[in-house]
Amino acid sequence: MFTKEDCCYSNYRRILGDIKETGVYCDYADVLSEKREKYLVLRHDIEFSIDRAYELSKIESEEGIKSSYFVQITNNAYNAFSEKNIRMIRDMSRRGHHIGLHYHRSDVEGLEALKAEITYQGGVFSAMTGVPVDRFSFHRPLREHLEADIELPGLINTYGHQFFVLTDDTDKPLEVKYIADSNHQWKYGLATKEYFSHYNKIQLLIHPLSWSPDGAEHVENFQAIVKEKHDELVETIEGEWKIFDELRGKL
């Protein structure tokens, strides 16, 4: 699990510096259009907080990095289409970050129905925010969806075979190295310059929910997220319900 030092903003800046030093950092679209044999692509799946993603995007802009942020539109933790969140999404896009759909699979059956739903949600997201959506990532994909190597017109699949290799052989060298900070810890590898140097093709997934100014261990981090969501709800109620102050002490 991460220590406070592992997931603080200063360490994130160090990771961005190591990414730039590889000399192969680029966007997903560059890999496809230029058929690159060496690359490192960076993405962020937004699970609980667009605010935290927005803060990471500002750090990346300061460090000269443009990355990809994937937003869910069927998420109980945040409303992608709130005025505040649309404002942040648009600003991220204006600064050159790529915005995509983080597709949370529903109960649709069949591959064609799945493709249709991803395409539909991407269109809804773009229409509601005014931001072009040209890529998607799965939230907890099924194995069959990874094996299918789904291709959709106008949408880059971050789990397509150009960017992700599915295997049961943990000892087999992979053409694409996948590294993620899932569950508040590094999975499948480390985000370090030394580790990056061992692979020609890398997809790095960093979840904004794990990162904060001073960093936090696992439980402390989720306590902070819960407080952030609580404060956001209170602020929203205060703006809508004038008698809320009379009830504040009873909550």
Topology:
Blueprint: H1 9-21, H2 28-34, E1 39-46, H3 50-62, E2 68-71, H4 83-94, E3 98-104, H5 111-129, E4 135-139, H6 143-147, E5 156-157, E6 177-180, H7 193-196, E7 201-205, H8 218-240, H9 244-247
Parallel strand pairs: 1-2, 1-7, 2-3, 3-4, 4-5, 6-7
Helix pairs in contact: 3-4
What does this structure look like?
The radius of gyration is 19 Å and the shape is globular. It contains nine helices and seven strands. The chain has a seven-stranded parallel β-sheet. It is 40% helix and 14% strand. It has 251 residues and is α/β, with parallel strands linked by helices. It starts with 8 loop residues before the first helix and ends with a helix.
Number of strands: 7
How much strand?
5-15%
Structural class: alpha/beta
Give the topology string: H per helix, E per strand.
Answer: HHEHEHEHEHEEHEHH
Kindly report how far apart the N and C termini lie.
33 Å
- Rg is 19 Å
Low-confidence segments, given as residue ranges, are none
Q: Outline, from the CA principal axes?
A: globular
DSSP helical segment count? 9
Mean pLDDT: 94
- Main beta sheet strand tally, sense and closure: 7 strands, parallel
Helix content: 25-40%
Quick gist of this model?
40% of the residues lie in helices and 14% in strands. With 251 residues, it is of the alpha/beta class. The chain is globular and about 60 Å long.
